[in-house]
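Retro notes (design track)

What went well: tokenization of the new backbones is finally stable.
What didn't: we kept losing track of which sequence belonged to which structure.
Fix going forward: every design gets posted as structure first, then sequence, in one message. First example under the new rule, 499 residues:
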């Protein structure tokens, strides 16, 4: 039975995969196989047959089929579905071998360059405690980082992100990095180290103008703008150092960048869970966005001092976050367009695929294997969110060692990656959602607990979201379209893909 079209062999011995998660709603039962991330929902008749497979121990399919709970065709369909989702074994073998899934890439593909930690804003949840003035990365350092990334990291592609603080405060370093990366790529053309290189920037948008937007466009830098919804919500958190709101200045920046035809994306941080739909609607109807990302706030940096984070927030956020699914469905009904809502795209994709294309939802997370962060001084860190924390530092861009070799031989990288493996995290190792969510964010875990050897502080959020999405997708397979750009890897025309 190695092919999806295989005929069910009546003499095959069937056994139920151990340690399944079960949840009942009315007459239906959700089954989840945690280690291979397989799942399905059974109706009453199917559940009855499944119960015979389980309670009577390993037995031949022909014996399980006796009794007529399902017609022969439906029985065969049930067996195939359970087998392809790793919920049963046939003749002692499951369809997926879990030990062959979930491989982690060896070298990073995303590189976040902090051209300064200074910022013209003082956002209330800023995780880097941004100051009004701070040292700027030199153009020489930016060029050295970019050149060495392209020349020395043996990845299939490289994305250089310019960050801070506010990267627009140091546009010279951004230009130097882009030009050095492009020059290195040109030198490597046609060699084994040749790879696509792209550039991104995350900005608060207040320093965008026709001139600066034209510069970014000429450099082919994709611009992500941080905006937290309509003016009242945005100005509650994103303020200048004098406490004044920034929405009016940001609006001018967006207008200038749009006129200059800069490629814009939008990122919002939500602190009040009941505001998810309001923020999303503003981005979609107010700004015409079709692709957005909404993050929840976390107790990092300045947020620890300025904002409240109650223990039950994971569940509260999950219930409100799920309302964006209803919004997206209604938007499609009215317009025929499926919105790209970043985490929603990913979560739906994770339920329908074994691929984990995002570094924050793997085990271990992308710490040093998918991402590197660079401080303004050229220090190298395992993630952009831990830039400045020497516990996560693996060296300096001026070190003579090849960057690939530096990563291979780094005891810090090895220790941190081992600490974030699911099997080494007590609460995560037995969680039903461990292969959907991974081990979570090392940075946020460290900020919350002072250690990376704990579960993600918002794990309850993920538990609720993944289970609820399973029920919804099973009832409405059309929701597979909410996988967004990731869904291009799925055959959405072939019905509900195998989870």
């Amino acid at each position: 039975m190695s092919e999806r079209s295989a005929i069910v062999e009546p003499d095959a011995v069937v056994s139920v995969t151990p340690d399944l998660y079960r949840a009942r709603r009315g007459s239906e039962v959700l089954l989840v196989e945690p280690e291979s991330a397989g799942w399905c929902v059974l109706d009453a008749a199917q559940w009855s047959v499944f119960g015979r497979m389980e309670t009577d121990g390993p037995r031949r399919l022909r014996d399980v089929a006796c009794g007529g709970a399902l017609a022969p065709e439906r029985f065969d369909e049930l067996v195939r579905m359970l087998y392809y989702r790793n919920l049963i074994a046939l003749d002692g073998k499951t369809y997926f071998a879990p030990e062959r899934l979930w491989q982690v890439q060896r070298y990073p593909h995303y590189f976040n360059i902090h051209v300064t930690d200074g910022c013209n804003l003082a956002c209330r949840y800023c995780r880097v405690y941004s100051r009004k003035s701070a040292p700027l990365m030199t153009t020489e350092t930016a060029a050295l980082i970019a050149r060495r990334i392209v020349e020395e990291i043996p990845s299939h592609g490289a994305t250089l992100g310019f960050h801070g603080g506010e990267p627009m405060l140091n546009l010279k370093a951004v230009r130097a990095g882009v030009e050095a990366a492009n020059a290195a790529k040109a030198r490597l053309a046609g060699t084994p180290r040749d790879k696509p290189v792209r550039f991104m920037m995350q900005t608060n948008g207040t320093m965008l103008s026709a001139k600066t937007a034209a510069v970014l466009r000429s450099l082919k830098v994709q611009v992500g703008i941080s905006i937290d919804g309509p003016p009242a919500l945005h100005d509650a958190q994103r303020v200048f150092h004098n406490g004044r709101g920034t929405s009016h200045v940001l609006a001018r920046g967006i207008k200038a960048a749009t006129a200059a035809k800069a490629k814009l994306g939008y990122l919002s941080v939500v602190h009040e869970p009941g505001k998810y739909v309001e923020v999303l609607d503003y981005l979609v109807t107010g700004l015409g966005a079709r692709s957005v990302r909404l993050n929840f706030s976390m107790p990092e940096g300045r947020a620890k001092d300025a904002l409240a984070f109650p223990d039950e927030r994971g569940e509260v956020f999950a219930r409100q976050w799920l309302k964006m699914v209803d919004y997206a469905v209604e938007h499609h009904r009215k317009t025929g367009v499926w919105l790209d809502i970043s985490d929603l795209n990913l979560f739906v994709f994770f339920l329908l695929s074994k691929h984990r294309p995002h570094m924050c939802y793997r085990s271990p997370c992308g710490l040093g294997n998918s991402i590197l962060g660079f401080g303004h001084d050229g220090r190298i860190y395992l993630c952009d969110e831990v830039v400045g924390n020497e516990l996560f530092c693996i060296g300096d861009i001026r070190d003579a060692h090849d960057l690939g070799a530096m990563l291979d031989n780094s005891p810090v990288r090895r220790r941190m990656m081992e600490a974030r493996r699911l099997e080494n995290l007590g609460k995560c190792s037995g969680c039903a959602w461990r292969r959907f969510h991974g081990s979570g964010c090392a940075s946020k875990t460290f900020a919350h607990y002072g250690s990376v050897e704990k579960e993600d502080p918002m794990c309850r959020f993920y538990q609720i979201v993944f289970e609820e999405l399973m029920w919804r997708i099973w009832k409405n397979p059309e929701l597979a379209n909410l996988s967004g750009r990731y869904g291009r890897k799925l055959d959405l025309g072939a019905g509900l893909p195998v989870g």
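Added context from the reviewer: The CA atoms of residues 109 and 158 lie 5 Å apart.
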